[in-house]
Amino acid sequence: MTDRTATPRSFAASVPLSGRIAIPGDKSISHRSLMLTALAVGESRVTGLLEGHDVLATAAAMRAMGATIERRDDGEWRIHGVGVGGLLQPRQALDMGNSGTSTRLLMGLVASHPITATFVGDASLSGRPMGRVIDPLAQMGADIGASPGGRLPLMVRGLAPAIPISYRPPVASAQVKSAVLLAGLNTPGITEVIEPVPTRDHSERMLRGFGADLTVETDTSGIRRIRIVGEAELKPQTIIVPGDPSSAAFFIVAALIVPGSDVTITNVGLNPTRAGLIEVLRQMGGDIELIDPREVGGEPVADLRVRHSALKGVDVDPAIAPSMIDEFPILFVAAALAGGRTVTTGLDELRVKESDRLAVMATGLTAIGARVTETEDGLVIDGTGGDPLPGGAGIAGHLDHRICMSFAVAGLVSRSPVTIDDMAPVATSFPNFEALLGELQS
Length: 442
Ligand code: S3P
What we know:
Blueprint: E1 9-11, E2 18-22, H1 27-37, E3 42-47, H2 53-64, E4 68-71, E5 77-81, E6 94-95, H3 100-111, E7 116-120, H4 123-126, H5 131-139, E8 143-147, E9 151-157, E10 166-167, H6 174-185, E11 190-195, H7 202-209, E12 214-218, E13 224-229, E14 238-240, H8 245-257, E15 262-269, H9 276-283, E16 287-296, E17 299-307, E18 315-316, H10 328-337, E19 341-344, H11 357-367, E20 371-374, E21 379-382, E22 389-391, E23 394-395, H12 401-411, E24 414-416, E25 418-420, H13 433-441
Parallel strand pairs: 2-15, 3-14, 6-7, 10-11, 18-19, 22-24, 23-25
Antiparallel strand pairs: 1-25, 3-5, 4-5, 7-9, 8-9, 11-13, 12-13, 15-17, 16-17, 19-21, 20-21
Bound molecules: shikimate-3-phosphate (S3P).
C-alpha cells in the first residue's frame, strides 16, 4: 500500500452532470460490520460492504486475529467469527494503511484480549495522534508502547480481564467512543462512555443489533451516557450496508455547483449523526430533495435528487460539526462558489485528520483563485457568486482522499484545469469516484 507511484489527474470545467448513481457502502459501518461479525460465533453475511483500502485493512487485521473472511463472486461477504474473547495473537504487525478508524477501533479490541499487536501505517496515519485512545485503554489495563507523540508504530499488549471504566472523552470523537466500547465488550462489568456532544452512533446501533447489552441515556442537557455490559456474546447477523453519505457529499456538491446539473444519488445513509452537510447546504439554498425515505440495515436512507442551485454563504454553527466532520473539505468548495461569505469555526479536529484539512484546503483553494482566510479553528471564504474559479494550479493531496476528491470537484467549476498530484488515496474510501463522475458527464 505504501510503495507505489503517484497517479496525477487533471479535472477541467464540466458539462452539466446528469443521471442516477449509486455510491459505495458506508465506510464507518463497513469497518464495524467486519469487526463485529468477526467476534460473533457463527456465520454472518454482509452485502454492500465498501471495498476500499481502509476497510480491506480491517478485514486483513481480523483475519490475522483468527476470523475467516471471504468475498463471494456475487459481492457478498461471509464471515465466521471467533467469539468475544477469542481473538488470536497476530503473527505480524497489523498494517493499517491510511485508516485511523481501523487503528483506533482495533486498538480497543486488542486492549481487552490476552494478545499483543503492533500497529503500523502510512506516512499520513503515522503522523496522527493516538493518545486519545491510548489514555482510556491504558486506564482499562492495556500496556501500550507508542512512538514519540503517541503515534504509530505502536504496540498494544492487552489485559484480560481488563478493568471497566467510565470515560468522558476530551474530544468529540466516535473513534474514541467506539474504541472504549469495543474494549468493554470483553471486559467484566459495565464500561461507560459519557458523551457531551453526540458523534456518529453506528457502534451503539450495531452492538445492540448483535445482541450486546448496551444502553444509551440522554439527560436534559443532552449529555449521553452509553453503557455496555461486558463479556457479551454476539450473534451472527445479515447486514446490508447503506451508501456512504460522506462519499455522496462530493456528488451532492458537484451537482449543486456545476451549472445545469440534475443528479440522483440512490441509497444514501441519512443517520442524523451524519447528515449535517445536507442541512448546511440547504441553508445555503441548495436544492436537495429526499426521495423514498426508508430503513436499510437499521439505518435511515433515501435517494437524493440534487439540482444546480445559486448558493449563498452562511455562518456554520459549530454545534453541527460532529455530524459533518468529514464533509468540511467539500463544503469549503461549495462555499468558494457561493454568493457572499461563509464562516466556519470550532473545527480544530480537522487539523488531525488524514491531513491538516484547514491548512491544506486553505492553501489549495487560494492556489486556484478562491478568497480564503485561515483562522485557528476554521476558514472564512468569500465565494464567487457562481462564477467559475480561475483554477490552473497543481494541488498536493497529502495522502488525503477527501482533499483529492474536493479539488477534483473544484476543477469541474474552474476556468483552467486543476491538477491533483496523486489521486490514488481516493481508493481508501471511494474506489470508483472517477468512474461515477465519468458516468454523470456522459
Ligand atoms: C469515524 C469517525 C470520525 C471520522 C472518521 C470515521 C468512525 O473520526 O472522521 O472518518 O468511523 O468512527 P473521529 O471520531 O476521530 O472524529
